[in-house]
Structure formats: C-alpha cells, structure tokens
C-alpha cells in the first residue's frame, strides 16, 4: 500500500506543497543523518575485519596460554610419576622406611640418604603417592572433568559461530589434548589395576598362610595324637593276619574291621611293642572298637587264635582233601563235593576242564572258621593259579610238547610214583621216552586211582580195569591228574633229566629207593627185587 492511498491531498493543494516544502526542509535536515548512517556502516564494515582479527588473536593467545598451563601441569605430573617410580625402584620398599605425611621418617625405620628423604617428603606432601593432602587426587579429577567440559563447550561454540580460523588453529591442539587425556586415563587405569592386583595378592597370601597354618596345626596334631578308641571294646569279629603282612597291613586290616580307629594309632603302639615281630599269621578273634594298645595285646595272646590251621601234603587226591577239610572245619564232606562241581565259581583255569583234581594246591592253610566250603576250595585253587603264573606254566608247557593240563597230569604221576624229590626228573624222562616210543606208561598208581585204592599190591586183574585213568590201557596219558602235585613235581615235568631209560622200579618202598633200566631184562630183575620186599612186608606198608 502506498503513501498516496493513506494520505490524500488537501483540496487547495497548499497543504501538500507546504508540507512538501516543509518536507524538503526535513529532508535537508535529515539527509546528513542518512549520509552519516551510511558512513558509520561503512566504517563499521571496515572495522569488522580488524575486530575479527583482534578477537581471533586474543582467543588464540588465551588458548595458547591455557594449553601451555595444561602442558606444564601434565609435564609436572609425568615428572612426579617418573620420580615416584624411580624412587620406589631405588629401594624405598626394600629399606622399608616409613614416613609421615610431612615427609619425616618415623621411628623404627632404617635411615635413608637425606636427599631421598627430602624427595620422599616432597612427593608425600604433593600427594603423589596417593595419600598426601586430603582432596588433592579428587581435585585433579575435577580439573580434568572441567577441562573436558570446556573443550566440548568451545567446540560447540565454534561450530555455531563458524569461525574457520579458530577451527584451523585449534584442531591440532584438540588432537594433542585428546591424546593427552587418553594417556592420562590409561595411566590411571593402569595404576588402578596395579593397586587392585597388589591388594588381591596380599589378600590371597593372607588366606593361604592362614589356611596353611590351620591345616598344618591339624596335620601336626593328627601325627602326634592320632584318633584312637578307648577301652577293651565289645562284640566279636574274626580278622586274618596273612603270611608276610607288615605292621601297616595288619593295621589296615584292623581298621577295615573297625577293631581300631586309625592305622596310625595302631602303628604307634606296634612300633613300641618288642614282641610285635613274633606275631604269627592266622585268624584272630578280636573285639570291635578296641584301643590300639588293647588290640596289640590281644593279638599276642595265644587264646585269641581262632583259625583252623591245616597242612595238606602233596599227592593227596581230591576226596582225601575233602575229608581232611571236613574234619578240621566240621563242614560236611558233601558240601565240599558240591562246591567242587562248580569249577567256574572256584576260578579253575580253562585247561583243568572243570575238574578240581590236581588243582587243590598242597601246603599250609589257615582257614577262616566262618568260611563256607566253596570259599575254602577257592582259596586253594587261587594258590595254584598263583604258583602256575610264577612258574610260567602255560608258555613252558610248549617246550615239552604238552598242553598245561597234560603237564599237571604228568606231574601228578611223578608225585604218586616218585620215591624222593631227586627221582622226579628221572621218572619224568622215563615217561617222556615211553610216550615218544608210543608205549603205554603202565603205572600201578593209575590203576589204584581208578580203583580208588591205596596199596602196594597190584594184581594182573587190577590192571585190566576199564577206566580212562588206567595207563595200562590208555595212551599217552590218563585223562586227568590223579592227585595234587607240588612245585617240585611241576618243575620236573617241565624239566626232565637226560637219559634213555624206559623202565623204573622203586625196589625199596620203605626208603623210596628207585632203580632205572633200558631193557626188559633189567625191568624183570628190578621187579623181582620189589617182590622180595613185598613178601617181607605182607601188610604192604612203606
């Protein structure tokens, strides 16, 4: 909208020309102001670059001053940290010198050099060690926080003002300050981790030392005063002391049956008992929860022997073994016969073919008075298996051309025929020579086994008995063993003597004297000699 529309001219026109004249006067008076305003703007425009340059120089100067202060502070801080590290390495911790917060050495410490003490005092007073004047470390963190806030505010201000020169001048300084802040932050984290590691190590050391002390005391107390029962105990229990058992083995057996409370308590008594070495293997009637001293005394008392000691000689047949065991243990013979039929439960080797004959190893046994027939027979079979392993029976039987079962059978023949142990290898050679020649063994002992007899008088009729054990009729060996051979007979069966004999006769059964020959004439002569002895001894006893 124009001025013409707002202000109409008067009718006479004078008012307009008058105001126009007057207006020109105002225009004349106002023109210098308009000119003067334009000059002011031109001068201000000319002044602005100067003021901008001056502002930028002042800002740059202030920034340089501030950056210099920060740099000096960082240099001082780094120098203090370096001096702290050097000081600690030079022996502060090694000499264990203690100072108060003013750097003065405390009593009881080792005096250091004055220069080190003064340096330590300066560090301690400046709070460099982390325990100087209160609030210094917090003040440092606060200053750094404000420094970061100032940098962020300054960057935001420059972004709004658009001062390119400030950005260019301070961009490099900003990068340096960022690097410095990251370095200080990393150093603080490293120090924090170091302090935490030290504290953790100290706590762990205290825990280990404390726990070790408690455990060490408990261990020492257990060594000096091992746990033990008191009194004579009560109830009854059978324990076995095996042949060759040491004091530790006996103590372990007693503890297992709850006779004594601990192995160490019994060993302590056992070590001071002069008669401990005279303790015999066997079964003992003990009481439960006895003191170790009472248990040792009862073991040495002959009345405590509860076992059934029995000696089974070599050459016994299985039924003869059953009778002796039954007489000793009061277990019926039929129980042993029934147990013998279960070869697998007894642990018989495979080459025994399920028969106990020849595998009830002879020797001395201390029988458990509470054991059933099966356990007693198993004890004897287990002993045979152990002796066979020691002899390496399975592998060595191959060297004589027999299997392990045949070796046991041949050894049982040697045990039955041999007059003395020295004759076993020679009789073994006679049997191997006859087997090699394809001749029957013709042994009277096999006939007597088939007839279930024990006698020296064997008739021609007896030799005609039908049995797989009759060596007059079967070759090369009977079907199985005829008795329980001992170790000497087993060794002889694997190691026969050298010779070409085909015959042997025990011409004097009373002494076991045996003669050997290679011809039928020699055999006839030796047989006549035996007949004369039998005629003189009609009872047929040796």
From TrEMBL:
Q: Where in the cell is it found?
A: Cell membrane
Please give, as recorded in its UniProt entry, the membrane topology of this protein: Single-pass membrane protein
Report the EC code(s) recorded for this entry.
Answer: 4.2.2.29
Could you say which residues are annotated as the site Important for catalytic activity? 417
Residue numbers spanned by region Disordered: 1-135, 152-192
Q: Where is the composition biased (Low complexity)?
A: 57-128
* Known function: Functions as a peptidoglycan terminase that cleaves nascent peptidoglycan strands endolytically to terminate their elongation.
ATP-binding is among the record's keywords: no
Annotated signal sequence range: none
- Composition-biased stretches, type Basic residues, lie in 26-38, 183-192
The portions of this protein that span the membrane are: 196-220
- Main localization of the protein described in the UniProt heading: membrane
Which keywords does the record carry? Cell membrane, Cell wall biogenesis/degradation, Lyase, Membrane, Transmembrane, Transmembrane helix
Name of the protein in its database record? Endolytic murein transglycosylase
UniProt-listed Pfam families: YceG
* Xref: CDD domains: MltG_like
Which principal EC class is assigned to this enzyme?
lyase
**InterPro entries, per this entry?**
MLTG-like
* Residue ranges, compositional bias (Basic and acidic residues): 39-48, 155-182
Q: What catalytic activity is recorded?
A: a peptidoglycan chain = a peptidoglycan chain with N-acetyl-1,6-anhydromuramyl-[peptide] at the reducing end + a peptidoglycan chain with N-acetylglucosamine at the non-reducing end
User: Which protein family is it in?
Assistant: Belongs to the transglycosylase MltG family.
